[in-house]
Write a structure and sequence with these properties.
This protein is mainly alpha-helical. The protein has helices at residues 5-9, 16-27, 34-58, 64-75, 84-91, 95-107, 129-149, 155-176, and strands spanning 81-82, 111-116, 119-127.
Length: 178
């Protein structure tokens, strides 16, 4: 069986990924399932936190995707203006996907589009005062949810986890280009 010593120590700490690993251990005991343990949990964690954040941002009348647009503008610094193309590149969205988000956010009065004074063919997207107020509140609410999720870890553990995930992400993104 592919059971790890840490699983035997504390049966109360088992999760659904442990059950999946146990099943693989029964039918294919020769498989090394360590990667499945990591990525299975990362995937479940991303889904669970995504759902929590979607709910949190929904209280502000925006989706996670719309939050991302507003947050990108906010992080750009004053005057909180970027081109639609730059937003699309930053958020890795198609221009069509970006247009839909911008349309909704503009209708809600959270941003405005205007001609780019440096490019006759271009547009600028700028946060409105209401958009700035909303994104500042939504960012705090989202960080609160994320901080609460980390409450089971001490500061050192959270730092170690962040560092390990940074390394894993760098290796994974680097492998994708091969």
């Amino acid at each position: 069986m592919n059971e790890r010593p840490e699983q035997r120590k504390d049966p109360q700490r088992r999760d659904p990924v442990d059950a999946i690993i146990d099943q693989w251990g029964t039918v294919r005991p020769e498989l090394d399932t360590r990667a499945m343990e990591v990525f299975g949990r990362v995937s479940r964690l991303a889904r669970a936190m995504g759902d929590r954040l979607e709910h949190t941002y929904g209280r502000f009348g925006i989706s996670r995707g719309e939050f991302d647009v507003l947050a990108t503008l906010r992080r750009s610094g004053e005057p909180y203006t970027l081109s639609p193309r730059r937003l699309s590149e930053t958020l890795m969205l198609t221009t069509g996907g970006m247009t839909g988000r911008l349309d909704k956010l503009e209708r809600a009065g959270l941003l405005r589009r205007s001609p780019d004074p440096h490019d006759r063919r271009g547009l600028q997207v700028t946060l409105t005062e209401e958009g700035l107020r909303l994104i500042d509140e939504a960012a705090v609410a989202g960080l609160t949810v994320q901080t609460e999720a980390l409450s089971g870890l001490d500061e050192k553990q959270a730092g170690q986890l962040a560092g390990l995930l940074r390394e894993l992400l760098a290796g994974t993104e680097g492998a994708a280009g091969r």
